[in-house]
Amino acid sequence: MAAANYLSSEDQFLCSICLDVFTDPVTTPCGHNFCKNCITEHWNTSDRCQYPMCKEVFISRPDLRINTFISEMVAQFRQSAQQKTSSSEQQESKPGEVPCDVCTGTKLKALKSCLVCLASYCETHLEPHLTMSGLKRHQLIDPVENLEDRMCTKHDKPLELFCKTDQMCVCMLCPVLDHKTHEFVPLKEEYEGKKVELKKTEAEIQQMIQKRRLKIQEIKHSVDLSEEDADREIVEGVQVFTHLKESVERGQANLIDTIKEKQKRNEKQAEAFIKELEQEISELMKRSTEVVQLSLSEDHLHVLQSVQSSNIHHPPPTKDWTKVSVPPASYEGTVMRAVVQLEETLSRKIKKLLEAELKTVQKFAVDVTLDPDTANPSLILSADRKQVRTGKVRQCLPDNPERFSLNPCVLGTEIFSSERFYYEVQVKGKSDWDLGVVRESINRKTHVTLRTQDGYWTIFLRNGNEYKAATGPSVLLSLKSQPQKVGVFVDYEEGLVSFYDVDAAALIYSFTGCSFNEKLFPYFSPCQNYGGKNSAPLIVSPVGVN
């Protein structure tokens, strides 16, 4: 009963000095209880031996001994408090968590599962497996569901072995009954081997993750570079269009000034004529007044003498104005000349832009060589596979699937399926040729039809002066000069194929908005020989070398 009363009040087990549960409790002569260390320290820091509760003073320090009864009560109190705390810390199992198989009513969360008992236990019901010698030998694992899956379905025994022959877990009876002559190892041994494999797999996965993280950084860096390029292009583009706009505005202002200057000259000429006419009118009016006055005079002598002494009866000398006129100013050709001048200015600026563009695409130059396995038998390739011309005699070559059978065509050995590339081909001295890129799946056994829908992105020359783009139907190209060397540029991702006159730094033609979903090959055709008139070869030239 007394113990129950003690256990019912936590305050009775608290030291009045440290205010914590007693540690080594002692009782003083005055009847109060303290921790032995607390009261000793109290007296050590005081000049006299005085009790902190009742203030009673002793002449000499009493001999203190641990109160065993209170010490036992404190121990019971601590154990009870620990059990309450431990019980309160255990959690009720939630959906997805493994419940204790022993709990009745509310199922607590299991802390461990026993592979021998095939049961899962909460903290309280796990205690026997931690304290009883017979149960300590059982194998405990983190809680799992469906422990029956760990039993052999045939023999109702725990799965303790691994059959390396059948690659499956088996019980101790399986080697005797069902897996005779098979190779077996303990589960732990196979487990250790699998752990090594898993660590290796994990290392490989981590390496893959690292590679992808690096790829993310690479892509982000590429986006940053692209953004910088975009900003630079915008700035340069704005500058170009600003200059073009200024040129147009300047040309317009010059046109207006020219027209106004002509008008001013016309007005000045008219003003001079008018001033001269007004002066003559003034002289004539003055003479008219003199004639009128004289004609009104009745002095016969005066009139006769005045007429004879002067030329008053004749008009004053004047200019013959019958052929004088001020025609409207002539503006014919003024606007056209201004537009032509503007066109020349724009052409110079466009040429500079094209020169800069050509230098940019030349940075993506690739070394292209001709593929003899694709060459039509009528073609002759140079030893370095950089030149191709049409011979007079058809060669005897194997008709492999890659070879063009009917048309004098050949592909480059290089395959392109992404990014950008550029190469140059000398066409000097030829009257007919085809150049461009083609997709891998083109039909090489029928007559070649140069159309984009058939997988050809090409331009071609016919009859020495007819340049066309094979858009299907073909588009006639108007070129200022005949190209001696043609540059071919492809931006796979952008869907762009452009052709340049390298020497003139001029754009010949561009295929835009192309849809590339296959590998691309450089395409060449020196066309027929035409009796030697078109015998010059197509030459794949090093970029930047004339």
Percent helix: 25-40%
Structural class: alpha+beta
Report how far apart the termini are. 115 Å
Total number of beta strands:
23
Gross morphology is: elongated
Largest pleated sheet: 7 strands, antiparallel
If strands are numbered along the chain, what order do they take across the biggest sheet?
11-12-23-14-19-20-21
Low-confidence runs of at least 5 consecutive residues: 1-8
- Report the β-strand fraction as a percent range: 15-25%
On the 0 to 100 scale, the average pLDDT is: 85
> Please, how many helices?
9
| Rounded radius of gyration (Å) | 56 Å
Can you walk me through this structure?
The protein has 546 residues and is an alpha+beta fold. 37% of the residues lie in helices and 17% in strands. It has 9 helices and 23 strands. It has a 7-stranded antiparallel sheet, with helices on one face. A 6-stranded antiparallel sheet has the order 13-22-15-16-17-18, with no helix packed on it. A hairpin with a 4-residue loop joins strand 8 (161-163) and strand 9. Helix 7 (187-296) runs antiparallel to helix 9 (334-361). The termini are far apart. The model is unreliable at 1-8 (pLDDT under 50).
Provide the descriptors you would attach to this structure in a database record:
single chain, 546 residues, alpha+beta, seven-stranded antiparallel sheet, six-stranded antiparallel sheet, 9 helices
What are the SSEs and their pairings?
Elements: H1 2-8, E1 25-27, E2 33-35, H2 36-44, E3 49-50, E4 57-58, H3 68-89, E5 112-114, E6 119-121, H4 123-131, H5 133-136, E7 140-141, E8 161-163, E9 168-170, H6 174-177, E10 184-186, H7 187-296, H8 300-309, H9 334-361, E11 379-381, E12 387-390, E13 410-411, E14 420-426, E15 433-439, E16 456-462, E17 466-469, E18 475-477, E19 485-491, E20 496-501, E21 506-511, E22 520-525, E23 538-541
Antiparallel strand pairs: 1-2, 3-4, 5-6, 5-7, 8-9, 8-10, 11-12, 12-23, 13-22, 14-19, 14-23, 15-16, 15-22, 16-17, 17-18, 19-20, 20-21
Helix pairs in contact: 7-9
